[in-house]
Design a protein that fits this description.
Blueprint lengths: L6 H24 L7 E9 L2 H10 L16 E9 L2 H12 L13 E4 L9 E5 L2 E5 L2 E3 L15 E12 L9 E5 L5 E6 L5 E5 L31 H5 L9 E13 L19 E3 L25 H13 L16 H6 L1
Parallel strand pairs: 1-8, 6-12
Antiparallel strand pairs: 1-2, 3-4, 4-5, 7-10, 7-11, 8-9, 9-10
């Protein structure tokens, strides 16, 4: 990123990521949230010498090759991160939020239409399967489904991804999370759980060339056939110390995500130049390694969590009517009409 953009722009994004991790940790601790939050380290392992060399050129302090335990590793670097059980965290947040008045929470209620222009009262009409709701301002935080908005046709591409839970009969102490990268776009990730099981996602090499299997789809009711066997004996083939452990796949599922026409996630906010959208706010994210600014949630137990500071910034724009430049958002995440048109 520092190569494509200026160093201070890249540094702003890094600082935003770290601030999100700290904000999430503070919330969990301050509110005594039971969500299996663990602050640990992630080991980012490079399986391709070409990709490893590319990273070394970009980062002078990248650790040299030879980190023990990963078969075929050419290099690795390590950084502080954390993981949790988002389902538990979200339930905690809902329980707290529902204790306040003036909140109407509707689940299993798809929105089928948003009015093109405001009602004469100044409110937007949001049509759902249970009737219509009117609001002065609308926040759209719908991940892959945001592709349904006309201005994002072929700009946001929904796609399916796959994830599994691996059980090890006698689990070793796996303190770190892992990202195993074959190249910039092809990587797997491993996240140890408190019960000794391991959540593993990725398998892109098994299906990403077959776009009909995943791209343009939000169907998370069926598995990706080409990828469902990818994880057979995955741990034994990947981690040297689990060769005869008897590790097996206990659960496997598919979730919907989205990618964008640009190479960096864009948190899309109000653009006053668009008269018909001046009170619409949009929070978007994508799946580049589960970065902390991602603002979407994938189904099942292990998901990418809505960025706490993204939510805070959007809330301030809505409630305080402040400009994007006055929020915590990095400048590179701001969308403009010109940026959207040009891709």
């Amino acid at each position: 990123m520092a190569t494509k953009h200026e160093i201070d722009v890249a540094a702003e994004i890094v600082e935003f990521e770290l601030a999100n991790l700290e904000a999430l940790q503070d919330y969990v601790i301050d509110n005594n949230v039971d969500c299996d939050f663990i602050m640990n380290q992630t080991v980012d392992v490079q399986l391709s010498e070409e990709h490893n060399s590319s990273l070394k050129r970009g980062f002078d302090d990248l650790a040299s090759a030879g980190v023990s335990g990963i078969k075929g590793a050419n290099g690795a670097f390590k950084y502080t991160t954390g993981h949790l059980w988002p389902y538990k965290l979200i339930h905690h947040m809902f329980s707290r939020t529902l204790s306040h008045e003036h909140l109407n929470l509707q689940t299993n209620t798809p929105v089928t239409n948003i009015s093109y222009s405001p009602h004469p009262t100044g409110k937007w009409i949001v049509t759902t399967s249970r009737g219509s709701v009117r609001g002065q301002k609308v926040i759209i935080s719908t991940n892959a489904y945001t592709a349904l908005l006309p201005e994002y046709h072929e700009k946001i591409i929904p796609y399916r991804a796959i994830c599994i839970r691996i059980v090890v009969p006698t689990p070793p102490m796996l303190a770190d999370s892992y990202s195993l990268r074959s190249n910039l776009q092809d990587f797997d990730y491993l996240t140890p759980q408190p019960d000794g099981s391991i959540i593993v996602g990725g398998a892109r090499s098994a299906y990403f060339r077959h776009t009909e299997d995943c791209y343009g789809s939000v169907d998370d009711t069926n598995l990706i056939d080409r990828a469902k066997d990818y994880f057979d004996e995955y741990m034994q083939k990947t981690l040297s110390w689990l060769g005869n452990s008897g590790a097996y796949t206990a659960q496997i599922w598919t979730g919907s995500e989205c990618t964008m026409f640009q190479t960096i996630s864009v948190l899309i906010c109000r653009n006053k130049a668009w008269a018909t959208l001046q009170t619409h706010f949009r929070m978007l994210g994508m799946s580049l390694g589960g970065k902390t600014f991602s603002s979407w949630v994938v189904s099942q137990d292990t998901v990418f969590l809505k960025s706490p500071l993204a939510g805070k910034a959007i809330s301030r724009m809505v409630l305080q009517d402040i400009a994007y430049s006055d929020t915590e958002f990095p400048q590179l995440f701001e969308e403009t009409a010109l940026r959207l048109e040009n891709g």
